[in-house]
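#struct-pred

JT: dropping the chains for the assembly here, can someone run the whole complex?
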Amino acid sequence: MSLTALRGSRGARDTRGTRRWTSIGDGPTPTAGRVLTYAVLIGLSIVVLAPVVWAVLSSFKSQSELAQTPPAPLPSSLRTENYTGALSSFDFALYLRNSVIVTVGATLLTVVINTMCAYGLAKYNFRGRNLLFLIVLGTIMIPLQLIFIPVYQMAAQLGLVNSLWGLIIPPAATPTGVFLLRQYMLTIPDELIAAARIDGAGEFRIFTRIVVPLSGAAIAVVTIFSVMWRWNDFLWPLIISQDQSKYTLPVALAQFNSQLVAPFNYILAMSVVSMLPVVIIFLVLQRHIVRGIASTGLK
Amino acid sequence: MTAMARTAPPRTAGPTMPGSGRRGSGHRRRSVKPWNQRLAPYLFVLPNMLIFGLFVIYPAINNFNISLYDSGNGRDFTYVGGSNYQEMLSESEFWSAARHTVIFAVCFVTLTTVVSIGLALLLNQKIKGRAFFRTVFFLPVVISPVVVGLIWGWIFERKNGLLNSLLGGAGLGQPGWLVNSTLAMAVVIFVGLWLHVGFYILIVLAGLQGIDSTYYEAARMDGASGWQQLRLITLPLLRPTTMVVVILSLINGFQAFDYIWTLTGGGPVGGTTLMVQYIYEHAFQSPVQYGAAAAAAVVLFCAVFALTVINYLYNQRKESA
Amino acid sequence: MRSARISLTVTVTAAAITLLASSCAPGSSSDGGDTKQADDKKLTYLYFTDGPDEQATRDLIDEFEKKTGAKVNLQIVPFDNLEQRLQARLSGNNAPDVARLTDITPFRTDLLDLNKFQKGALNGKFLKGADSYITGKSGELLAVPSDLTMNGPLINVDQFKKAGVPLPDPKQPWTWDDMVKDAKKVQAANKTQNAIAMDVSGHRFSTMLSQYGTDFFDKTGKKPGLDTGKATAAVKRFAELNASGTMPKDLWLQAGTKYKAANEIFLAQQTPVYLSGNWQVSAFAKDAKFTWAAAPNPCQKTCGGFPGGKFMASFKQSKHQKLAAEFIAFMNSKASQEKLAKDANFLPTRKDLISSGVKYPKRDADMQTFLDDVKRTPQTAYASAYSPAFGATADASVKELAKVLAGDSSPKEAVEAIRAEAQKALKDAQ
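RK: done, full complex below.
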């Protein structure tokens, strides 16, 4: 098994006791290259940001302003009518709360079971390991859209329908998470684990005290992805939550699209509302996340 | 414990099999392995595999089973053997969707790999505003794909869209982005890239951090140029990361659906209808042909699985060679 | 540690038993109408909304709850995902008690015979056109048409006035030629992008087909009825109008296979004539910043529009069948339907309400225009609209028309393809 994105030299780096940014073209860099780098990065940033900024600006426009050709770059005034009009028609706080519960609950569960599973697959030699890993790899490829009727039947049989548990448990065993974590854990030296065994540490203790701390970066990645996935999940919550009291934000928001005559200015405002929380979370955490992942090294 | 991490002997990043250490220890202990070590791995994988089994594997098997049935309305089933497959393979819509899926996936995977590695290399330099750029490129990843499709569809709209307003204002004409099949496919690929590339940049960045800096120091001492360092050190050592990017983007590419649905609806004239949409339409649009949808899902799964395994074996051979 | 392991073992065993217990054959075993009935008076009503009907429905539910002591849980879902969700719930043996549907075909075998409980209140009380659609193989009443829709044009009165073009007379419908000529004049005078816009929908296009004297199906709704000559003429006209920019060609091509309304184009005053239907009335009353009116459907071979509608049904899986039937009967009583019609600008489906007429508190003149077209609409249009194969054929027609607009096929080829699809859809619906 050398399916490894993560080879390398944690040990080597650690023994020197210093962490350093490895960078290409370090040393005497020609300024022309610098300028080009900035030009590319700034140009692409504009491409990436433009639609988001455009959507946010336009979400303040009235329907007739939206229809103008050519479109005016700025809304005539900061009218919040789209937001108040759209938000007043439902219980925003309730859906937000459901979304938060589901996202936090599912992410905790995902991180715990994915990490355990990845450890089992990465660091033990047991009968059926390769088969299980192939199954994990195989299941990455099954989109829920394709199998959700049988999945729903299973959830219904287990009584998970119309409860927040039904939103938390079934999607928790993300194969992508297991895959990423396992790839990372392969780089943890076996000698560490062997040494701990000699010191008399139990298997579970080795996992919680050695493997988990060393996998912090990979766990961080899986955490963010899980948060994003669960927050933006639409199809599954749509089928599982049947009472309005169990709706998550995306499902509740989708009702605006449900009408045969949904006004686009409302849809825009609602899109911004659905983007906001996760973008804010990301902006607040991004320093830790991006730097954490990169500098600790998901290799 | 962390002290132990520091004193652990350095592992060389040469072409050793990464599993060799583990295999050695396994061999050494096989005869005397205590019961708790034998049981532990099963307990570690159990919770995850239990949920897998219940909500992924069993339904997937069930799905295969359904593909052998004719489903009147998704609930009354008659066994028909392989006739769902037969019918599907004779349908021109299936082949059109298959062709578009392959075109989309190939472009998407290639572009994603190249762009994510390129941008990660730029972002890995000591430049001002690095954190800002990283945040910006990652931002689309956190936005709901449904919303992404809506917003881009509105920007690419021929007459009133933002893009054509700008192009028209600059006297560059107003191409029918979503009206012409080729352009629409290009748009769909572009939006897919826009949406996902931040995720892969992050993976590559992490991979780059894992390359031991002593290689670069040695290379510089030998007088290697930046380009030579990139070609001879960075790219070869990045290969495992590249493989993760290729595999994950391949899977991503074959599953693309939600943002395409809100962006083009699979149009114009089926020009951007990919397999998942084909399956979705068979399963949920009248007339409901659940068995046929299941059959297509099985075919899609087999195709992606085969590609992944080939990719995996190819990389494994390359690495051990 | 040990007890944790034991409990894990128990979990595994339980899971294995669950796996074995769920039978090998796909689907669940929902058996006919013998679902065990519950004693509580709780109902779930799966609903999608067009907008103003939601409040009216809630008011009626309050009234029903007061009257019977029942508790109705209104579950509103996005229209796009209604069928999907219902399919899943039925396959999980977890159906709602009552649902509002636009197409009952995919669910026919799951629907409850309402005659079992409410024959007196419901049977034979609704417009005749829908009878064959809502009647099961052995005479069951599978659903009740809860509101009727009528397709028809809406026009921008301000723009017509500015162009000096007289408004069409609701009592003396204009022809297709008149409509196109007038619309183009108004377009030129107001410099709008288009003259006429139609929703991207096979149902809306069926209106044009019907006016050209042919329908997807014959008057029984069970045989293909598309006349190649007449239909080709309609498709050709449609293609020409799109090619010349009279209609917005992009709209059809950009929508793919999903439903797309042209209401934004009309609201942005970029088209003086908009071919849609009466459900736009209450929305435009709120959102339009100009004077507008409903116009009569244009005549070609025949006059009138094209019907559509929503249905209310219950399911064999329901654990509250009696109460569900009672609820459906209540919601479709004369008084309830009149309230819904008035509040949401719906058209009634009850024979008694149709003959007595409804006086609308808002936009009455426009509603009367639609009601006039209800009377002019030929019977075959009803038969087609209520054919079990209509949905699939209408979807196929959207695809085929897009091919014609893209220049990938000729009108004649498109008509043949639609006819073939109608045949296939009829076979599938058997």
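JT: nice. The domain at 42-148+309-356 of chain C is CATH 3.40.190.10 (D-Maltodextrin-Binding Protein; domain 2). The two ends of chain C are 60 Å apart (CA to CA).
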